[in-house]
Design brief:
The chain has one helix at about 165-175, and strands spanning about 15-20, 20-25, 40, 45, 65, 70, 85, 90, 110, 115, 135, 140, 155-160, 160-165. It has about 180 residues and is mostly beta strands.
Length: about 180
């Protein structure tokens, strides 16, 4: 279900259960209402291509049965409780301006066959909890400003592809030898 263009705020009647896709992409949204976390989406939620700089604290109550697309925004940070978010398939946070991730990030739950895209941000470090993540398909950290990886990356499990820049990959190999199937 698509919503008319260009939206500058979220429609008041949006905060309810949606069985299929909810497309709010390619609009001019600068913020989301506090009640946005009450939304339940059966398949995918598209918030990509907006002007979002931050997310409401209630965002971690949001439930998406499929993919959550939040790429190509201007997100600089995520709420402290972001790790409580539940996404059924993949989470796209790429092409934002994220400088750091909250400590709760390692508790993030992305479902089976999942992918996590954090590429093309401004991440300089990762929280210690990052090693608690389990990613079934792709974890993409390319095109960031990572100076080091936390020791907890020894516990990081990526069943598919771990994508790092050459510099970050060298750090990864030195600090987390054996992690993610690397020996």
């Amino acid at each position: 279900m698509s919503v008319g263009y260009p939206l500058v705020c979220v429609p008041a009647d949006l905060n309810r259960r949606v069985k299929h896709d909810r497309r709010l992409n390619d609009n001019q949204l600068h913020s989301l209402p506090d009640s946005f976390g009450n939304l339940r989406v059966g398949t995918s939620l598209h918030l990509n291509g907006n002007q979002l700089r931050s997310l409401p604290d209630s965002f971690d109550y949001l439930r998406v049965g499929g993919s959550l697309h939040m790429y190509d925004n201007k997100l600089q940070s995520l709420p402290d409780s972001f790790g409580n978010l539940r996404v059924g398939c993949s989470l796209h946070l790429n092409a934002n301006q994220l400088r750091s991730l909250p400590d709760s990030f390692g508790s993030l739950h992305v479902g089976e066959g999942d992918s996590l895209y954090l590429n093309c941000n401004k991440l300089q470090s990762l929280p210690d909890s990052f090693g608690n993540l389990r990613v079934g398909d792709i974890l993409d950290l390319q095109a960031n400003r990572l100076h080091s990886l936390p020791a907890s990356c020894d516990n990081l499990r990526v069943d598919g592809s771990l994508r790092l820049d050459a510099k970050a990959e060298k750090m990864h190999l030195k600090s987390a030898k054996g992690c993610c199937g690397i020996s």
